[in-house]
Design brief:
mainly alpha, DNA-binding, 222 residues, homodimer
DNA sequence: GAACTTAGAAAGTGACTTGTCACTTTCTAA
DNA sequence: TTAGAAAGTGACAAGTCACTTTCTAAGTTC
């Protein structure tokens, strides 16, 4: 398979076997973050230990704590690293949707598929864990705002007409749709029920269509 | 030898200080389950240890493992115990809503309040943890079906007209609304954003009103 | 009230947990 | 070339984990 991705080569090594300190540092950090997310995905938050992460990263215990003073710092950094990467994927996926056809349904389905990704389920675990972990909550609070903003921006680009027509209300509808799918995804983590989800997505699509095409004064007049 | 008078050798049950084995057993079991839920609420799933549970229950480690062969069994039993109790609370809350006024908005608000309860947030942690814990997932699968069924039943009683008019479609709308609120609640665990939630609930109310009062053929005709 | 059963307490067990520390390797700058 | 800084190693400390074993006390049965 030809690898035609746009990721620049970014020479990890400078020709010969030598690497600058900066390169060595960055490589180890990257390995640790990737291993952290991988572990979270495979074993879940509760079973993510520093030892396991170092094993997967192929790095010593000492190296981990040289880069991150505590386990919480590692998890926070992993979250900070994960979210922008997810956003890039979202954007790509939405831009790949054809101009023609049922764009509302396509958007809902795409969003659902996104929430089925293991990395996103790992992100959900982080959110849940943050309830009882202040340090993690602080990081997520920082990370969440730009994330939400970009999701809204993607939605506006995807539905430019409705976005313009509805103004700020559009954002709230987007938020609501995202949260709906998030909630459904959460439910299906433990108890997958494909037919039920399918029905839910159908109704969500129908309601979203009403919200987008229909009354801009959805909430006025009581 | 001081204290000989006050610290009597515990007169071995004055009269009906006696409890049957069944009573003793049930009391310990109850204490363990309550302590488990309490710990989950306060410390989160990841920090819920058998040691902490026994401490809170005022019981020995041995006692815990006499009642529950593994930690997972304890957590499963806690979930099994929690869900019916939650349901009873739901029913009570919905029945307390006055007949007059905006019942749609009342239902949405009530559901939101319910999802703010610590016990429910503990339940969310269980669902998330179940992704990487088969034993827990099995218990939740069993527990989830009757739970969902009763939620739908409560909704049908709350909106009898719409329920009758829409038939099976009603259930899907209910599922969707519950999942929406669940998703919003999940998001606000780590990042509370009251104004955003308020807006979301407003739109959810508006859409739900459309779904309930409006077209029964919401999903037909594409 | 002796024999028996069951519930629970007390005190382990070994396998992990996060985080540290003395030390080595690798790179940088003079 | 070489001193020193930065990055990485891996054994280890100190404590916690889920779970067991051993024993005692409480309740039941005859």
């Amino acid at each position: 398979m030809p690898n035609t991705t746009t990721s620049s080569p970014a020479p990890a090594t400078t020709g010969n076997g030598r690497r600058t300190q900066e390169e060595r540092k960055a490589a180890t950090r990257r390995a640790l973050l990737d291993a952290t997310i991988e572990t979270m995905v495979e074993l879940g938050y509760a079973n993510t230990t520093t030892t396991e992460v170092t094993k997967r990263a192929g790095v010593s215990q000492g190296a981990l704590f040289k880069h991150f003073p505590t386990k919480a710092a590692l998890l926070g950094a992993a979250a900070e690293d994960l979210f922008p990467r997810l956003r890039a994927e979202y954007r790509e996926a939405f831009e790949a949707v054809p101009e023609t056809g049922d764009r509302v349904r396509a958007a809902v389905d795409l969003l659902w598929d996104i929430f089925q990704k293991p990395e996103l389920q790992a992100a959900i675990e982080l959110y849940v864990a943050a309830r009882t972990d202040e340090e993690l909550a602080a990081v997520l609070t920082e990370v969440d705002a730009p994330h939400r903003a970009e999701l809204r921006a993607i939605a506006r680009e995807f539905f430019p007409l409705a976005a313009e027509r509805q103004g700020e209300a559009f954002d709230s509808v987007v938020d609501l749709v995202i949260d709906s799918i998030q909630g459904a995804a959460l439910g299906s983590l433990a108890v997958p029920d494909a037919p039920r989800r399918e029905r839910e997505l159908t109704y969500l699509t129908a309601l979203l269509r009403l919200a987008l095409e229909g009354a801009a004064d959805l909430t006025t007049g009581e």
